[in-house]
Amino acid sequence: MAPYEVLLVLLVSACTVQVSIQGPNEYRLFRKLMKDYINLERPVVNESQVLNVRVGIYLMQIMDLDEVNQVLTTSVWLQLSWIDYKLQWDASKYDGIDSLQFSNDRLWKPDVVLYNSALERFHTTYDAKVYVASSGSCLYQPQAILKSTCYSDLRWFPFDSQKCDLKFGSRTYSGLSLDLTMTEAHLSEYVPNGEWDLVGVTGKKNNRTYECFPEPYIDVTYTIVMRRRTLFYVVCLIIPCILISILALLVFLLPADSGEKISLGITVMLSLIVLMLLGAQMIPATSDSVPLIAQYVVITMAIVTLSVIVTVVVLKFHHHDPNGDKMPKWIRVVLFDWCGWFLHMKRPNEDKTHSNPNSMDLKARMESVGQAGEGEVLHSTAGSEPELVKILHEVRYIAKCFRDQQHGEATHSDWKFAAAVIDRLCFVIFLLFIILCTFMVLKSAPN
Q1: Tens-digit pLDDT profile for the chain (447 aa)?
Q2: DSSP of 376-443
Q3: Which of 33, 142, 377, 417 is deepest in the core (most CB within 10 A)?
Q4: pTM, to two decimals
């Protein structure tokens, strides 16, 4: 086959493919519509006429909410529709063709942008084609990844709900030239987010006058209401805080003689500090308000710290020097009479005395023995032999030692009982306080 015949075959094939894709009627219609079309002109018959543009969105996904930078990232399909009188034709004259698709750079389209965009470039949409019907109705549906500013109130974190706005409006046309009509947001293709539950999307049309422009400007604002999913934060933060608080209560149940009360309290405090450091990476860093979970962690830290302080006081009472100061009377009244009665605690000496009613106080017994011995010695010897006088002094010394020992044991027993009462009292108070704080935190959460 000659080379010119090969070129002829390729040329015929190319012409055949072009006709099969577009067709002569569609090509003729396109040339007719684009003959005198200028895409810089607003498509209205009269300059005083206001062009109406319908605005709507298809919300596809909530991709992320950056609470620190106050930025919401969403995936949407923006829907813009208007009437262009220059793009009308009679479908019967073009073999029933009632619609065409034009490249968006060939036609006029409204410059509707996201007013509260958080990007440097406002134009972030995919350049989709414009669908044009024979009646002149134009439909433009670009897909976009929008990053919008969104004020996040983290007061109830992680039980919070957030409201973020998507504010659409014309960049250059005022309300005297371009009017916007809002349509409802479509959620049929929405993909759920792992962190946020979509509560709903509401829309509102606004007519505002800005200081720098005398003409009113129209905007359509869609408000996305979403609620945070709390399961992750409950499992990773709240439940560990509750368990650590319970461990802090065990400090008051551990016997003081074990020598491990301070060690247990310090260990619990260190565990809570480690949990706070890990939780700080989950909690958004903001100073506008203190999140609810942060308040709960701080309260738990205060409880653990107070438990360690009280434990030091308990150990001070328990290991009090028996030869030291006597217990003040007000401590006896408060701890022995009031708190002991309230907590149903009895001193060991009381049980011992009730179990053996025939026993006498050692001090009285020793005094009686000393007095009897002294009388017998004085009566029998009448001061004749100094050895017996020395024996009498020894007996007095032994009686004094017994009395001092009994007094020291009684004093030490009082301090130990006071320490036990403080342990029991703090256990009850801290238990009620932990339950109350946990209930109040969970009750105050909005969801």
Answers
A1: 554 454 444 454 444 433 334 578 888 888 888 888 887 888 898 888 999 999 999 999 999 999 888 999 999 999 999 999 999 999 888 888 999 999 888 899 998 999 999 887 655 556 788 999 999 999 999 988 999 999 988 888 889 999 999 999 998 898 889 999 999 999 999 999 989 999 999 999 999 888 877 888 999 999 999 999 989 888 988 898 888 888 888 888 888 888 788 888 899 989 988 888 888 887 887 777 888 888 888 888 888 889 888 888 888 887 776 666 677 777 777 777 777 777 777 766 555 544 444 444 544 554 554 555 455 544 555 445 677 767 777 767 677 666 666 665 666 677 787 888 888 888 898 999 989 988 888 888 876
A2: HHHHHHTT--HHHHHHHHHHHHHHHHHHHHHHHHHHHHHHHHHHHHHHHHHHHHHHHHHHHHHHHHHH
A3: 417
A4: 0.73
- Strands 51-66 and 178-182: what pairing? parallel
Query: Which tokens is 89 given?
Result: 């034709």
**How do the domains of the chain map onto residue ranges?**
52-229, 233-444
Superfamily of domain 52-229: Neurotransmitter-gated ion-channel ligand-binding domain (2.70.170.10)
